[in-house]
Request: fold
Amino acid sequence: MIGARYQVPPLFGLVLAGGRSTRMGADKAALCYRGETQLDSSLRLLRPWCARIYCSIRPEQASRPPYSWVAQIHDRFDAGPLGGVLCAMEAYPDASWLVIACDLPYLEPATVHDLVLARNARRPVTAFLRDDGQPEPLCAIYEPMSQVFLAVEFHSGRGSLRASLGRANANLLTLAERWRLESVNCPEERDVARRKLEGEAAG
Reply:
């Protein structure tokens, strides 16, 4: 209807935890930093902003700790973050999704706060820019309007969520401490992150 007031979709949360953690050799969501698992940390970051929160995992992870007690959306594609986001959007197509990966130990509440406050629900995605000038898809908000575009990307064989966001009309934000978005994928990076975060807490 012309002149009708635009209804901003409700914001749901999604923790991406369906990766196989091959380089780490252990489930990254179960790793502890600052006294809590990455899954617990991710849920804590999402809780103030989201009406519902889900964990995106592979079906075979469903009964394993630490996932057995959380609401789940199963990634039946098992094809990286893009598949996980699409499965969530298919399950709840009228919701917007605040998505964070389970391997971002440097992420803090202020960063998520800035992302949510800068959200533009009339653009398909709101995301931060990385140091390389590309959007960061693993700490971002996906609006319902992005589902068709992402589905076309996926089924066309373009499985990179980061590359897909680069082709989208995204609302892109700058972040002063871009290192907050660094992922931790191997034991060496895990050890560095633990030392850095312990120093930050002590400092």
Notes: The chain has one domain: 11-202. Strands lie at 11-16, 32-33, 36-37, 52-57, 72-74, 96-101, 125-129, 135-142, 171-173.
